[in-house]
Amino acid sequence: MIEDRIQEIQERLQATTPGGWKLWEPDEGYFGDASPTIVTQAGEYIAQTNYDGAHDRDSVVADAEFIAHAKADMLFLLELLKVSFGKQIRLNPIKRLQ
Length: 98
Description:
Number of helices: 2
Strand content: 5-15%
Distance between the termini: 30 Å
Helix content: 40-55%
Order of helices and strands: HEEEH
Shape: elongated
Radius of gyration: 16 Å
């Protein structure tokens, strides 16, 4: 059912590391690793792409950019669903990003 799937997505979103995320691209001097990294707004590590250099730089940066924005994008889309469907779909209140 649609409500169940939306609820699952919402629960996964709310279980993530609190706060907004962003992309950080260190330079080569950072321990010799310039892999794009997803961090919190405070700079805490979330995830890193391109561990083995298996992909070209453009796709690795694009992947990291997608991940970094996924949390805020999902929040936006869930809120849009809530507004669009109104009472037709019951959603739990959505916690905002800090």
